[in-house]
Write a sequence for this structure.
């Protein structure tokens, strides 16, 4: 839910400062928020390369300003620094009991963004993120939060919105609104870009249907735009703003999204330590328990706000999980059905020999789901056309569990009998799977006859028939069929020349 909630609450919270600067502008908060959000999503197809160079300087100004504001108010009311002493927190919990636990649901909003601190590690590396946090973001936030506390000590009525109360009304407040709005837009852009990247990775790992991916920069591979995801995020953000109408009401939804992400990250860390790093349990479990001891109390406190808006990220997460489970299960069943029809390569070869009447000049490329056997698609083609091209390339696209594949591992090519070649092309989950250039390099190195504009590319397109004999229930099968119908075509996804593509339809009962 972060990708939907963060832009909505960040921009709305920033624009709400207008009402502090000038109460007469209270009615303009929602319209201005909607205009900013729609404008933000409206420019995604153009990319952020041109304005992206301003993101760093703007955020540096932002952290400098909030640090200076915090330091100024701490200077005037330094007793706020007593909040560093932990006995105040223990005393609060001891005095307020259960209510003290529930207040954690609000306290956690002070660390929002921390759950996604690692999200750009693949682009920047560990060291820059650590330095940015320890030298800029962390100290600035701490100073500002203590400064807000000092403001409340000086003026208790400022508790309604202590941040914008740190500056005088009028021009200073308007300038702070502009700066905070710019920071909110940049933070929202980071979440939107992250949603695009995660969607592409999930697609290439087989957990989501294929989607259209457009590159918005010629020199930066990671700058992409996915129209369907952009539209879904825009719709979700606008809907949240219209329904909740204030950042305070949205905070319940945000709290569950943040603490839920933190708890899931801790669990994923444990899985990595055991499955990939091979840590012994006695080393991994104590770390997991330490992290969960911090995460679970905050998550439990936010779960209490489920009916106040906390249901939003849970509903979004459940919907995405449903799509991923049904899609992955459906594709697995299709692969299993094909394997049952043609249990081995000999069975497929027998079918081809039985129907094949002639070989015709040229090269055919059959997209194969397996690198071990001949694709059933080949049998369907031969049984109908009773002919086959003189040269046949069986192309299997494999996505590795790493962002980028080294060029020396990009492809594997081998010769098979009867004019067949098998080519396995490897891509990382952050790479665009452009098949034709990869095939050109692979075939040139192996001396395989292949011309991109003369070859014919064969793809399969499945349709599904309802039946009580399948392993999927009727509702699940209908939902999977809906996803299949709306997925991006394979020729567009793999960058094949559409005028040279032949699709062969098959009916499948799941």
């Amino acid at each position: 839910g972060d990708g939907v909630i963060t832009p909505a609450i960040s921009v709305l919270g920033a624009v709400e400062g207008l009402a502090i600067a000038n109460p007469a502008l209270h009615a303009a908060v929602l319209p201005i928020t909607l205009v900013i959000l729609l404008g933000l999503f409206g420019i995604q197809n153009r990319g952020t390369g041109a304005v992206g160079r301003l993101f760093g300087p703007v955020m540096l100004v932002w952290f400098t300003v909030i640090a200076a504001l915090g330091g100024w108010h701490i200077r005037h009311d330094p007793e706020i620094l007593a909040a560093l002493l932990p006995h105040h927190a223990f005393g609060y919990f001891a005095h307020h009991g259960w209510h003290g636990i529930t207040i954690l649901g609000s306290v956690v909003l002070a660390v929002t963004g921390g759950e996604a601190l690692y999200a750009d590690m693949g682009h920047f590396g560990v060291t820059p993120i650590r330095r940015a946090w320890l030298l800029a973001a962390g100290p600035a936030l701490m100073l500002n939060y203590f400064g807000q506390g000092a403001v409340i000590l000086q003026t208790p009525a400022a508790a309604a919105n202590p941040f914008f109360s740190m500056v005088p009304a009028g021009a200073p407040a308007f300038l702070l609104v502009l700066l905070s709005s710019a920071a909110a837009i940049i933070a929202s852009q980071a979440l939107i870009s992250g949603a695009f990247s995660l969607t592409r990775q999930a697609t290439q790992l087989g957990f989501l249907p294929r989607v259209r991916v457009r590159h918005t920069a010629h020199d930066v591979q990671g700058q992409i735009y996915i129209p369907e995801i952009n539209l879904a995020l825009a719709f979700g953000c606008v809907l949240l703003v219209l329904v909740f109408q204030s950042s305070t009401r949205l905070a319940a939804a945000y709290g569950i999204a943040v603490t839920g992400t933190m708890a899931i990250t801790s669990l994923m860390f444990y899985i990595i330590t055991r499955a990939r790093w091979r840590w012994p349990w006695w080393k991994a479990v104590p770390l997991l328990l330490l992290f969960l001891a911090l995460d679970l109390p905050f998550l439990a406190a936010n779960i209490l706000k489920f009916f106040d808006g906390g249901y939003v990220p849970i509903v979004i997460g459940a919907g995405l999980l449903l799509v991923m489970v049904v899609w992955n299960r459906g594709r697995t069943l299709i692969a299993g059905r094909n394997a049952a029809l043609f249990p081995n390569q000999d069975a497929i070869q027998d079918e081809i020999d039985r129907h094949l009447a002639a070989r015709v000049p040229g090269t055919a490329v059959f997209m194969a789901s397996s690198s071990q056997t001949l694709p059933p698609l080949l049998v369907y083609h031969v049984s109908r056309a009773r002919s086959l091209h003189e040269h046949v390339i069986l192309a299997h696209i494999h996505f590795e569990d790493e962002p980028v594949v080294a060029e020396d591992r990009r492809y594997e090519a081998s010769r098979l009998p009867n004019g067949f070649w098998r080519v396995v092309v490897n891509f990382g989950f952050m790479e665009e799977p452009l098949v034709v250039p990869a095939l050109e390099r692979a075939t040139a190195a192996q001396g395989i006859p292949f011309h991109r504009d003369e070859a014919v590319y064969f793809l399969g397109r499945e349709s599904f028939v309802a039946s009580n004999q399948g392993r999927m229930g009727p509702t699940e099968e209908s939902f999977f069929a809906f996803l299949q119908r709306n997925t991006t075509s394979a020729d567009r996804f793999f960058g094949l020349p559409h005028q040279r593509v032949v699709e062969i339809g098959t009916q499948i009962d799941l």
